[in-house]
Specification:
By secondary structure, this protein is an alpha/beta fold. The chain has a single domain, classed as Nucleotidyltransferase, domain 5 (2-Layer Sandwich). It is about 45% helix and about 15% strand. A six-stranded mixed sheet has the order 4-3-2-1-5-6, sandwiched between helices. The N terminus is likely disordered.
């Protein structure tokens, strides 16, 4: 009975989500240098995954060491929920000039962009949870992509003496300072996505020099 219910639910999904799920039927991972990564960031009304909402999503996709900026992703989402106190962080006004889409339109566009790529985010758990809640709210399943957290990966890439330090939290500003990454459009979704991608590539270079550039190392929390 449970199996029939699952199939019925699967058939109820819109075609774009079924197409997305189809991409994950092949589970084999290729070489890291040939893998398509997508660094992304969300700007939100707050930090509660149930009560708050995603206002904008920015992303950049890349393979190898080159980031093609002309193929970046950015959109703004119409929301009835709004908190004026967060405007000073992300600068997004409730009735701003940006063209806005519905949550479902945003999900469809985002899934079409990321496909089955490995996703990268700074403090990835937050962005992952916010996106998953948006998918679930619209009757869909969770994201299926593998995730890499640049905050976790950065600490792992540091010398052993720094790994054992008391500092467990590294902000994106910390990474910019220590990795010499320019703060391009900081606190916008698209800007922070690009910064995250640049930081990730610098961390990969550090790991490569230490012979740690392996999937098990990248994906291990």
């Amino acid at each position: 009975m449970a199996f029939n219910w699952f199939n019925r639910k699967q058939n109820d999904y819109p075609q774009f989500y079924l197409d997305y799920l189809e991409l994950f039927k092949k589970k084999a991972k290729g070489p890291i240098e040939d893998t398509r990564f997508v660094a992304f960031d969300t700007e939100t009304t707050g930090f509660d995954k149930k009560e708050d909402r995603v206002l904008s999503i920015g992303a950049v996709a890349f393979t190898g060491k080159t980031i093609p900026i002309n193929n970046s992703f950015e959109l703004y989402i119409h929301q009835d929920i709004f908190k004026s106190e967060t405007v000073k962080i992300h600068g997004l006004m409730k009735n701003g000039n940006q063209e806005k889409v519905t949550e479902l339109e945003a999900i469809e566009a985002f899934l079409e962009y990321i496909k089955n790529s490995v996703l990268i985010a700074h403090h990835a758990g937050f962005d992952k949870n916010m996106m998953n809640e948006m998918l679930l709210r619209n009757g869909l399943g969770r994201l299926k992509n593998k995730f890499i957290d640049t905050g976790v990966l950065f600490k792992k890439s540091k010398h052993k003496i720094y790994q054992d330090s008391l500092q467990n939290h590294y902000s994106l500003d910390d990474l910019c300072k220590e990795l010499n990454v320019p703060k391009v459009d900081r606190h916008t979704a698209s800007g922070d996505a690009l910064i995250t991608a640049l930081a990730f590539l610098k961390i990969l270079s550090r790991l490569d020099k230490r012979k740690h550039l392996k999937w098990g190392y990248l994906l291990r929390g």
